[in-house]
Each structure stands twice: as C-alpha cells, then as structure tokens.
Amino acid sequence: MAAVTTAAVDAVSSPDLELAKQTSALTVQETTPEAGTETKTAQLPPHRSHDPQYNMKRSDPFMFGSRYLDQGDDVFEFNAWDHVETDDAYKEYSEQQFAMQRASPVSEFDKNRFNSDPARFWNLFYKNNTANFFKNRKWLQQEFPVLHRVTAEDAGPQIVLEVGAGAGNTAFPILANNKNPKLKVHACDFSKKAVEVMRSHAEYNTDLMQADVWDVASEELPPGVEENTVDVVLMIFIFSALSPLQWEQAVRNIHRVLKPGGEVCFRDYGRGDLAQVRFKKGRYLEENFYIRGDGTRVYFFEKDELARIWSGVFKAGAPTNENNNETCDNAPDSLPQEPSTTKEPQLFDVEELGVDRRMLVNRAKRLKMYRCWMQGRFRKK
Ligand SMILES: C[S@@+](CC[C@H](N)C(=O)[O-])C[C@H]1O[C@@H](n2cnc3c(N)ncnc32)[C@H](O)[C@@H]1O
User: Partners of 360 in the beta sheet?
Assistant: First the structure.
C-alpha cells in the first residue's frame, strides 16, 4: 500500500453524500507545471499554487497528498491540507459533541427498528440514490498494489471477493483495468437493490463477474465461493455498516473464504471524522456507532480496535499492541503493525494499518474541519 496517501477521498458512495459533496467541493489537486511555466512556479511551488491551470481533476490521485502544512503557514490560504494533526480546538469541540450525542441516544424502540433489518434501509438508500452511485476509483490500485497483480495478463486464475460491494464502485473499476482473462470478481452485498444495480450495469460481464446477495455476518458463505479459494477480499466502507456484535462472524467468514496468505484490502471511517463529530441529538446507538438520517448505520473505528479485531481478538479491552492505542486525534499517518502480544490464536497478520487524515478549510467562515479514514491490509495466517 502506498503508505496511506490521501488519494482515496471518495469515501463515500454511501449515505454520507452531502459530506462527500462538501469534501469534493473543497478539494483542489495540483500537478507539476507545464513546460514554459517554470519562471512563475519558481516563486511558488506548484503544489501550493492557487492557479487553476495547475489543478487536476479530483479523480487523478497521483499528486494528491502533497499539500503539507508547514510551520508559519496560513491555514486559511488554501481549502484543503493533507497529513495534518487535529488541533486542540477541534478536539475540544469533538468531545463536546460526543458528550451531547451520548446524552441523547436513539430510543430503545428505534434501536430495535434499525438493528433488526438493516438491509431494508440500504435497499431504500439504493432505490433513492441511483444518480449518485458511480465513481471512478482510480486510487484503488495505487493504494492496494495486490490489485495490480491479480489483474495482470499472466496472473492466472485469481478470485477477488468484494464484500458490501454496493453499486460496484470498486468492482467495475477493477474490471475496467483488468487484463487477466482468468480473473473472477464476486461482488456481494446484503442489499438486493444494490445487487440489482450491479447486475444492470452496462459493464456487468458474467464471464468475469458475479454479483450476489450475501450477508457477511451470516452463517453461510457467498454463493459460488468455496472455502480457502479467494485471493483478495475487498472491504471498502462496509465494516462500518456492521454492528460491533457482527464483527466476529464477519471476520471469521472472510478468514474462511480466503486462501492461506490471502489478503484483505480495507478502508473505512476513523474516529473523530467530521461525519461523526457533526451527528446531532438522537443519532447515537452506542459508542462510536450511529444511525444516519436515512436509517443506515455507521461505526467510526480506532486503530487499535481494528488491529485487535483482525488479529482475531474480539473482546474489547484486550489490546494486541500497547503502542497502537490511537484515534484520528493522535495517530501518526501510517504505522506498520507490530506483532500481537496476546495468547489468543491470530486470524490475520495486520500487514499495514494507517490513518488517512485531511483538513478541509472553510475559508469564508474560517473554520477547520477534519476527515479521517482508516486503511489497512490484513493477511490470512
Ligand atoms: C457505505 S456502503 C459502501 C459500498 C461500497 N463498498 C462502496 O465503497 O462504494 C456500505 C455497503 O455495505 C452493505 N452492507 C451493510 N451491511 C452488510 C452486511 N451485513 N453484509 C453485506 N453487505 C452489507 C450495504 O448494503 C452497502 O452497500
């Protein structure tokens, strides 16, 4: 993985659409200057330029993540900064928000309503948001190089399973870049409507792809997928949709389908992300777990928690690594995972787990806002 660059900002093909639009609107990318423009850029590095001629389309990730905030910089000079620490004011504001959220939780009646049939709310989501589904995730292969390997012409038979595939925002870009005639992509989602959307996509090609309904937290394996056969599992903003009570079954299912040595590519929300901080009263289900306005659920992860879960330690309070107790508020950008110190059997090696943070600035209101995502690669032992 490319040390968690901030390439992968399109966090959201999810219900977080408003926030995604805001992120997109505030994000400016930079490129290197064209020939003949060196004199101008010699005074101002191109990655710091305001000139729109240096801005690339948002979908090109390669120069993303290069606008670092240096000492003495005016934060409000630009509208987005990469690899930043949250400031004390934001931390304090977040804690106040969390206290307010905890004090006004979702009623027991509603908790039951949202937890008893989560697929219903995702079906509604996919019914209502057809126009917003498709994104071109060019950052995928950059962040998860294993996708280069399995899609290479001579890679031979390779099976990729995407869990919680939604509208296929990950599966279709993989197919679009695929040169391997022996690749098979299983794209599963527990929402029937999402599976319908994938099956009706113009690029749905049953020689290479199979979209099916599957609940990752069920007792079954996905249709047509045998134990110990999958090379790569993709989990992009799906784990956050599960209740903490479902984590163990989901991780065990993923472990079951993967070949020994097979890899999980993971990206999801981090604790302290703006999407969490701005939840209002009546949205709190339990710590770090919320219900959105459309009835879909979302969890915000801490780094040590993810390391613990994927190592196969499901009891809270049993950290696998004392140095790993980090949230978006204090974690360095990307840390290699150290070995577990617990005696419990390990399911996965945490090969990489990093925090991807980005500061957005509303220059008009002189407000600083932080997005935060967790990204990792876990290998079946
Ligand atoms: C935030 S969306 C992400 C969709 C897609 N991975 C993407 O990044 O565009 C979460 C997806 O997880 C699916 N999902 C939620 N719980 C699930 C479960 N238990 N099993 C399988 N899919 C689930 C939802 O239907 C939804 O499509």
Answer: 80, 369
Q: pLDDT of 250-273, one tens digit each?
A: 999 999 999 999 999 999 999 999
How many whole angstroms from 327 Cα to the centroid of ligand 1?
Answer: 23
Question: 126 Cβ partners below 8 Å, 6+ apart?
Answer: 133, 166, 167, 191, 193, 194, 196, 197
Tell me what the mean pLDDT of segment 158-163 comes to.
Answer: 98
Closest CA to 212 of 266, 182, 171, 178: 171
Please give the average per-residue pLDDT across 90-105, as a whole number: 95
Identity of residue 46: P
Which pair of tokens denotes residue 143?
Answer: 């962040």
Taken in order of first residue, the domains within the chain and their CATH numbers are 17-23+84-380 (3.40.50.150)
Q: Is the CB of 253 under 6 A from ligand 1?
A: no
Q: Is the pLDDT of residue 52 over 50?
A: no
Measure the CA–CA gap between 241 and 298, rounded to whole angstroms.
5
Q: Is residue 187 within 6 Å of ligand 1 at its C-beta?
A: no
In the block, tokens 């948001």 appear at 129
* pTM more than 0.85: no
Residue 22: pLDDT over 70? no
Listed residue (356, 380, 225) closest to 301, CA to CA: 356
Residue with tokens 């408003």: 18
* Residue 200 near residue 133, CB atoms below 8 Å: no
Element (H, E) at 291: strand 289-291
Q: How many CB atoms lie within 10 A of CB 27?
A: 18
DSSP 143-160: H-THHHHHTSTT--SEEE
Report the atom number in ligand 1 closest to the C-alpha of 14.
1
**Residue 103 vs residues 106, 120, 281: alpha-carbon distances, Å:** 10, 28, 8
